[in-house]
Design goal:
The complex is a heterodimer.
Chain A (H helix, E strand, L loop, with lengths): L20 E4 L15 E2 L3 E5 L10 E5 L4 E3 L15 E9 L3 E10 L1 E5 L6 E3 L3 E11 L5 E9 L7 E5 L5 H15 L2 H4 L6 H4 L6 H5 L4 H9 L1 H4 L13 H17 L12 H14 L1 H5 L5 H4 L27 H9 L17 H15 L12 H13 L28 H5 L22 H10 L6 H11 L7 E2 L2 E2 L30 H4 L2 H10 L21 H8 L15 H11 L26 H4 L2 H7 L3 H4 L9 E2 L2 E2 L9 H12 L18 E2 L6 E7 L3 E8 L4 E6 L4 E7 L3 E2 L1 H4 L13 E4 L6 E3 L16 E7 L5 E9 L2 E11 L7 E7 L8 E3 L7 E7 L2 E8 L18 E7 L2
Antiparallel strand pairs in A: 1-10, 2-6, 3-4, 3-6, 5-11, 6-10, 7-9, 7-11, 8-10, 11-12, 13-14, 15-16, 17-22, 18-19, 19-20, 20-21, 21-23, 24-29, 25-26, 26-27, 27-28, 28-32, 30-31, 30-32
Chain B lengths: L25 E2 L2 E2 L6 H12 L4 E13 L18 H5 L10 E3 L5 E3 L1 E4 L6 E2 L12 E11 L3 E10 L2 E5 L2 E6 L10 E7 L2 E11 L5 E5 L6 H14 L9 E6 L9 E6 L5 E5 L4 E5 L10 E6 L8 E6 L2 E7 L4 E5 L9 E6 L12 E6 L5 E5 L2 E3 L2 E3 L8 E4 L5 E5 L8 E4 L2 E6 L8 E5 L32 E3 L8 E6 L12 E5 L4 E10 L2 E10 L6 E6 L5 E6 L11 E8 L7 E7 L2 E6 L5 H4 L6 E7 L9 E7 L1 E8 L2 E6 L6 E6 L16 E6 L6
The chains are: A alpha+beta, B mainly beta.
């Protein structure tokens, strides 16, 4: 560590117990400093007991992501706390670089004893400030704390007040242990105090599941689940011996008798449908939890990608699915997982029935679909015995047969969860090294410490923040989303996440967003729709936000509380008075910030950023009022430009350039929702129609049939044609409207240009002519050898004459091709080819048909030398006269409609 | 002021002739009178230019009522608000704006305020279900106040049909399907003194639904440019403008000057190509202000040309431009300033049709090679080189042969020559941590892997080639967000910055300054803020022979902080030397700083006047990179090595890192002024002598 040159900026402390530690951050602790450099907190925030006086004492209760919370009356931050009891939060703030900083706390329903100074704190370089916050609740009523910071602006640097960024790796790690305890269903048997409900895990509805699963797999699973999937939430429940075997078998018979199996009906498995299922699996988001099954190059059919699977292990690896599912059973499961799996861990990806079949078909093909077996006929006697086994073995503690089915009386209760810590740690009980009675989980010994500590904490009143993080972990949200510096997609999985073709938002347009501060950012109602219904506005992303359904109830509220804001309650909105709304609309328009360059509005999709009219439905004004000033700070790496520099807008002629007033005006406009007046600058179809004036008009662009090197030529009389400079041939002709340049000129352009009038002629395939062959070819070639487009010249009236070359018997032959609307009104085009370098004796062959009336005529010295009208044949079969002199041959082709 | 042409000395144009305060300035025929601030000065002139004899009030909207559809003569079916017409006819108050009506499908609707809507398109289609907009009709109500009885000609249009009542009397009835053209209908209203009531009824069959009326013609762009020029002189928008004047060259009437390329004819006239495929010759661009500009359309119909160069060939000026599919040579054979021949010089690169496969260039080197860079295509936001030479820089020889030079480019919007060496600019994204300027050394690979498979030596399983590090990183956000083009100020021009490089930034509508030096065969250097507040996203820069800098702009599709969407501006040195860090050079133990003015010695020699931090960027497939491994440096000493030179000794130098220098304490000897820009960023790849 370099020698410290930092002096404590503040050394005075008001209470004897208050201390302030200011130290250089060691190099090892330098984490990511993002592009926008929002700074960070140094470590997770520790929650401690607090006796109301001593900020140094107090037992640790665990970790928080940030020094923020919002608790309703009676709610606590930790189960070990009473609702009226104070607590202490300790952690570190890192000032990212030299400057003056200030911390502010919003406090409701309590008193805050803070070790941080009230005023500005001077940092001379990057440095870390340890802080301790003692919170004494005034009674058991609602209480809230939100911590903000700011850096003084000195003209170049500095940032406005904003919530302190969160770092919560340890808080999330703790939540992972709790989620694991839930996954194992411990609280299903072991009482867990007032929080019991929150810790319980409803296991699959057995009767419904049985209809979807193959009996031979069910048999293996029931007999020895911890062998089939070690560490599974389903414990081994049967010991060794024939009697145990018989009981397990009876259970299979009973389950098979409870439902009509969906049985073997093959799913479509031709390569094209498998490819669709493969693509769907890899792009829809399944990869986030289950990992990719094939290299991205294979999944997307893109040979230039590396053809290897990423090494990152998935959080939810597949077992062999082949022997497990009836094909239709898997499809039905994928279409609505919650129907049989009420724990909600496998969410709905909102698949259509067809998509579910494609996905199931692909998965079973990938794992090796098993051949149909003979129908399994449950034996009635065994089934009756199976029902008894179900009760005797306590299966009902976790499983119901189907929702609403009568209680069979088989639920077990065992010692309270809080008393299990020691037993887990000691390797005794259900989780012991060896099965000591039943049930039994085969767990890795390293898992035990975390589980033991978590079990010990599972008591007391509900702690909504802890429960939120636990639910977050349980639902594997962190597999796709980063939050508070934890989680996020594994690096190897990122290439599987894609944007729609039309979108161009960088990673914002393809990766699931970081959820740090999402509770502060999003309206709780919207967040609730996102997690429960999979609502989404990120139109650019191909991956889908899953719908977690009822199991995610309360998650949105919890995320708000964890960020220190009240759920469903925002800061007061600026009133949408007319002047504000119109100013906001103008600010968003093309003469303002041109928001629709990226953002969708109504039916206009733009390049994929979220629709503006949903802003106030989704976002909190409190967040917007911070974010709008400097988007990079709250969302490092965003493409959203910064329009306000230290309170001054780049648009000085609206609302006197007052940034705050402009930010409020835009919000006032947002707040009208679907009734927002549209901003200016949204391209409308038909808005860029190319008119042909008095001269012919040449327009190079992408055309549907003339390709990416197309040359469109429009004529004042309203007949137009397209020339393909790659294939070097005239492609087609149309009448009426020339082109609408929107594809090329609207937004980023570079798209196919459309808007043509009706096509009236299409050239036969291949080149228009061949030269040098004595006899016509047996099959007309696709292309002329060595053909190159050379350019065009404009005649004085603007008519373009294309120049191109090709090879004939090793020699270069130059052609000038002039095509114009035919002067006779009953004809369409007059094409004139002037062929230089034709040698004596060489013949020219012209393709005229089929299906289009064409007349070819060779002209020598202005006199007609040969003529042929094609009415049915493919070729003009007669060769033209050989040309024996050194002047170009002129060939005219008349095209009729 | 008379137009300045190149026939006489250009230097005379660098400074505006001193304005004799006794001679009034006239803009658009009316006198320009300076007021307290910019906004009121502008408003004062507009009122004089386009006096309004009436006062327009606010407007209100009542929508929707049912409409039976076109062709059923249903616009005349009266809805409830028309019951108020007799009241308006009687000269009473306006309609009851607090009243609630039963609208289409039984919805309760009320008047909603629109504010002042004169001269703006009013969208009547709100974001709701089509059922509320298709086959619907609405009412708009507003007032106009006259001091005496007078005739007012109102010009208006609607989408679709329109009825208009003035003081309760029907004055216009058009039941037609149409799109909005605000100049379609003209009615003459005989205004009564005091408040006059206007009620409009607009129907919609389907699609767009809008209304607009005119009270004021659009300002002539030349008048607009002259006014802005005058306002800039009286109220400089920023301290930078005391040293660098920015003149707006008005766009050609009826055209959109989205500048893709910029160069000059031998006679000095700028030649500009646009993203819409036009090539314009601009005459009169050097006048101050340039109000008598005339444009000649040299060529049109090109496929998104993003570069342009003029060459003299056998006594004739020839224009080269890279279109998406080819390098094109355009020749005017008959001297009428219009191209007659569009010759395809080379088309040996692939065009798959992906929108992001932009092509840039050419810039010519001393041997007459035309340099071209190609974007990779975007497939799902990741750059892909699916066709030949995508992501490459190459040169096309005078014989028309394509010679590949360097690969690994991503979005190389800009090529520049630095004293004979060729550089290019890349935009941040996948495998580009932040915007950068890099040397196009033959055979070099610049880090984007998609294009490497076109190399001769590429093998499927081979490791990637050694990565060429950039000469300059532009820290994202601090030094722009999307760099474009490099132009070098000719010797003897541009005040203290002669010989230095200038780089545009599209997002920020700004220009950055760069300096390069070669250490052990490796180019590296510094970037500095230069000029902000240009009219739109800066896309092209070119120095004219007189040392002024032409700036071509467009931000379509990407957006910029500039108030305009495109245009052409010219930056002229005023002669007032700014107090700036002129250049920054690395030494074995620190940096040598050269300033443009004599320094306050005490402040300059105080190490506390400086702060330095260094960081680097990650190379990965993610979009951009955060600043990585950031660490503060200690300034050990600041030694004065001359009246304008400081040698900074730094605790350590980190190769491969951007060294960000802040100079909050540095002051000029004269007046103790602070630096115009107190920051600079040096990209250190090699420490000399290490």
């Amino acid at each position: 560590m370099p020698p410290s040159t930092i002096q404590p900026a503040v050394s005075a402390s008001r209470g004897a117990a208050l201390t302030l530690v200011l130290a250089l951050a060691s190099a090892a602790s330098v984490l990511l400093v993002a592009g926008g450099d929002p700074g960070r907190t140094g470590a997770d925030w520790e929650l401690r007991q607090f006796d109301g006086a001593d900020l140094e004492a107090g037992a640790s209760l665990g970790w928080l992501a940030r020094p923020d919370f919002a608790l309703d009356a009676g709610q606590v931050l930790h189960p070990a706390l009473r609702a009226d009891q104070g607590f202490q939060i300790r952690g570190a703030v890192v000032f990212p670089r030299a400057g003056r900083y200030r911390l502010r706390h919003q406090v409701e329903g309590g008193t805050l004893l803070a070790s941080t100074p009230q005023g500005w704190i001077e940092a001379e370089a990057e440095q870390e400030l340890q802080i301790a916050l003692g919170f004494t609740r005034s009674g058991a009523g609602p209480a809230r704390l939100q911590t903000w910071w700011e850096m003084e602006t000195d003209g170049l640097d500095g940032f406005r007040p904003e919530p302190l960024p969160a770092v919560g790796a340890r808080a999330h790690e703790m939540a992972m242990h709790a989620a694991r305890l839930m996954e194992l269903g411990c609280a299903n048997c072991h009482a867990a105090g007032a929080e019991a409900g929150a810790w319980r895990r409803p296991a699959p509805y057995l009767g419904l599941a049985a209809a979807r699963l193959r009996p031979e797999w069910l048999r293996a699973w029931i007999r020895h689940p911890q062998q089939v999937r070690p560490g599974s939430g389903m414990p081994d429940s049967f010991g060794a011996g024939p009697a145990e075997d018989a009981d397990a078998e009876a259970l299979v018979h009973w389950l098979a008798a409870t439902a009509e199996p969906l049985g073997w009906t093959a799913l479509a498995s031709e390569p094209t449908t498998i490819a669709l299922g493969r693509k769907l699996y890899h792009e829809a988001g399944c990869v986030g939890c289950h990992g990719p099954l094939e290299p991205a190059a294979v999944a997307y059919g893109e040979p230039d990608l590396p053809a290897r699977l990423p090494a990152d292990p998935p959080v939810a690896p597949f077992q062999d699915l082949g022997p497990k599912w009836w094909p239709r059973g898997l499809a039905a499961f994928l279409a609505d997982p919650a129907l049989t799996h009420p724990d909600g861990r496998m969410p709905s990806l909102q698949l259509t029935a067809q998509e579910a079949e494609l996905l199931a078909g692909y998965l079973l093909q990938h794992f090796g679909a098993k051949a149909p077996i003979a129908d399994f006929e449950p034996d009635p006697a065994a089934a009756r015995r199976g029902r008894e086994v179900f009760v005797e073995r306590g299966c009902e503690s976790c499983h119901a047969v189907a929702p609403g089915m009568p209680d069979l009386g088989g639920a077990k209760t065992a010692a309270p969860l809080t008393e299990l810590g020691g037993r887990i740690a000691a390797g005794a009980g259900c989780m012991g090294e060896v099965a000591q009675g039943r049930p039994h989980y085969a767990l890795a010994s390293r898992e035990r410490a975390g589980l033991a500590a978590t079990a010990a904490r599972a008591q007391g009143p509900p702690a909504p923040l802890a429960e939120t993080l636990r639910r977050f972990a349980y639902l594997n949200c962190l597999a796709c989303h980063a939050k508070d510096g934890a989680g996020g997609l594994a690096a190897g999985y990122r290439p599987y996440f894609r944007s729609n073709e039309a979108a161009d938002l960088g990673d914002e347009g393809r990766l699931p967003p970081d959820l740090s501060g999402a509770g502060f950012k999003l309206q709780t109602g919207w967040m609730d729709r996102v997690v429960r219904e999979g609502a989404a506005v990120r139109g650019a992303l191909i991956a889908r936000m899953p719908a977690f359904g009822a199991v995610a109830a309360g998650l949105a509220e919890g995320l708000a509380r964890a960020d220190g804001v009240w759920p469903h309650r925002d800061a007061p909105w600026p009133e949408p008075v007319d002047a504000r709304v119109l100013a906001g609309r103008n600010l968003a328009g093309e003469k303002g910030f041109a928001c629709t360059s990226c953002h969708a509005f109504g039916a206009y999709a733009s390049i994929g950023a979220p629709p503006l009219e949903t802003s106030a439905e989704r976002l909190r004004y409190a967040w917007w009022a911070v974010y709008a000033h400097d988007p990079q700070r709250l969302k490092p790496g965003t493409r959203m430009p910064r329009y306000f520099e230290h309170g001054v807008s780049t648009l000085t002629d609206v609302l006197d350039g007052d940034a705050d007033a402009q930010v409020d005006a835009m919000w006032a406009w947002f707040s009208l929702g679907e009734f927002m007046p549209a901003p200016t600058g949204i391209p409308r179809p038909g808005g860029l129609v190319l008119e042909v004036g008095e001269r012919p008009r040449v327009f190079r662009t992408f055309l549907q049939d003339a390709g990416s090197r197309a040359i469109a030529v429009g004529f004042p009389v309203g007949t137009h044609y397209a020339f393909d400079a790659q294939a070097v041939r005239l492609v087609d002709a149309w009448k009426g409207a020339f082109l609408d340049a929107s594809g090329a000129w609207a937004g980023r352009g570079g798209n196919v240009t459309g808007g043509r009038g009706p096509e009236v002629w299409r050239a036969p395939p291949g080149p228009a002519l061949l030269a040098g062959l004595q006899e016509p070819p047996a099959a007309w070639p696709d292309a002329l050898a060595g053909a190159h487009y050379l350019g065009y010249r404009l005649e004085p009236d603007g008519t373009p004459v294309m120049a191109w070359e090709f090879e004939s018997e090793g020699a270069r032959m130059l052609v000038q091709e002039r095509t114009v609307p035919h002067p006779d009104s009953d004809q369409l085009l007059l094409r004139r080819f002037t062929i230089a370098d034709l040698k004596a004796g060489q013949r020219v062959w012209v393709r005229c048909g089929p299906g289009t009336g064409m007349t070819a005529r060779a002209v020598e010295n202005g006199a007609m030398a040969a003529e042929r009208t094609n009415d049915a044949g493919e070729l003009v079969r007669r060769a033209f006269r050989p040309f024996a002199y050194n002047r170009p041959m002129v060939l005219e082709i008349e095209v009729s409609q | 002021m008379s137009a300045c042409t190149l026939a006489f000395t250009l230097a005379a144009c660098a400074f505006p002739a001193a304005q004799d305060p006794a001679v009034p300035v006239r803009i658009g025929g009316v006198e320009y009178v300076r007021q307290a601030d910019r906004a009121s000065t502008r408003a004062f002139l507009l009122d004089a230019l386009q006096p309004r004899r009436v006062v327009w009030g606010d407007w209100w909207l009542l929508s929707p009522f049912a409409y039976a559809g076109h062709g059923r003569d249903d616009l005349k079916t009266p809805q409830a608000p028309e019951l108020e017409l007799p009241k308006l006819r009687a000269g009473g108050a306006g309609p009851d704006l607090a009243a609630s009506y039963r609208g289409k499908d039984g919805f309760a609707i009320t008047w909603r305020p629109l504010g002042e809507i004169s001269d703006q398109r009013v969208e009547l289609r709100r974001n709701g279900s089509a059922a509320l907009h298709d086959n619907s009709v609405c009412y708009l109500y507003g007032t106009v106040e006259a001091s005496t009885a007078m005739v007012l000609e109102l010009v208006l249009g609607s989408d679709d049909g329109l009825r208009l009542w003035h003081n309760g009397r029907l004055v216009l009835d058009k039941d037609v399907p149409r799109s909005l053209d605000p100049d379609t209908d003209r009615v003459q209203l005989v205004l009564t003194p005091g408040v006059n009531h206007l009620l409009a009824k607009v129907c919609n069959g389907g699609g767009d639904w809008a209304f607009q009326f005119r009270t004021r013609p659009q300002l002539d762009p030349r008048v607009e440019a002259e006014l802005e020029y005058r306002l800039d002189l009286d109220f400089p928008p920023s301290p930078e403008r005391l040293h660098w004047r920015v003149l707006t060259v008005p766009e050609p009437p009826g055209s959109i000057l989205e500048v893709g390329g910029l160069d000059f004819l031998p006679d000095g006239r700028p030649v500009v190509c646009t993203r819409r495929g036009e090539v314009w010759i601009v005459a009169g661009a050097y006048a101050e202000p340039p109000v008598d500009v005339s444009y000649t359309l040299f060529a049109e119909g090109l496929h998104e040309p993003l570069g342009l160069a003029v060459r003299e060939e056998r006594g004739r000026a020839v224009v080269y431009s890279v279109q998406r599919p080819e390098l094109t040579r355009m020749v005017d054979l008959d001297g009428d300033d219009r191209a007659d021949v569009y010759e395809c010089v080379n088309a040996d690169w692939g065009v798959s049709g992906n929108y992001h496969e932009f092509a840039f260039g050419p810039k010519f080197d001393a041997e007459g090679n035309a340099w071209v860079t190609l974007n990779v295509g975007f497939c799902g936001s990741l750059g892909k080189s699916v066709v030949h030479w995508r992501g490459w820089a190459f040169k096309i020889t005078p014989a028309g042969e394509l010679v590949p030079v360097a690969s690994g480019l991503r979005s190389p919007n800009g090529i520049g020559m630095w004293h004979g060496e060729v550089f290019y600019l890349d935009n941040q994204g996948d495998y580009v941590g932040t915007n950068k300027l890099a040397h196009l050394q033959p055979g070099s690979w610049h880090g984007h892997p998609s294009s490497v498979h076109w190399r001769d030596d590429w093998r499927e399983s081979a490791p990637l080639p050694a990565r060429m590090e950039p000469a300059i990183w532009f820290p994202y956000g601090k030094m722009g967000q999307s760099s474009a083009d490099l132009a070098v100020a000719p010797a003897g021009t541009f005040g203290p910055f002669a010989g230095q490089g200038f780089v545009g930034d599209q997002t920020r509508a700004s220009i950055l300054r760069v300096n390069l030096e070669e250490i052990d065969g490796v180019f590296q250097g510094s970037c500095h803020p230069f000029l902000t507040g240009l009219a739109s996203g800066v896309n092209r820069l070119a120095f004219a022979a007189d040392g002024s800098l032409f700036v071509g702009m467009t931000d379509r599709g990407w957006g910029s902080v500039g108030p305009k969407r495109q245009g052409l501006q010219r930056v002229v040195y005023t002669g007032a030397v700014p107090f700036e860090l002129a250049s920054m050079h690395v030494e074995s133990d620190g940096f040598r700083l050269e300033f443009t003015q004599d320094l306050d010695e005490a402040a300059a020699a105080d190490p506390r006047s400086y702060r330095m931090v260094s960081y680097t960027y990650e190379w990965h497939a993610e979009y951009g990179s955060p600043e990585m491994d950031a660490a503060p440096h200690r300034v050990l000493a600041a030694d004065l090595a001359g009246p304008r030179t400081v040698r900074l000794r730094i605790d350590r130098l980190r190769e491969g890192f951007v060294h960000e220098l802040q100079m909050p304490g540095v002051r000029a000897r004269a007046g103790g002024a602070a630096l115009l820009h107190a920051e600079a960023y040096y990209t250190l790849q090699r420490v000399p002598g290490r």
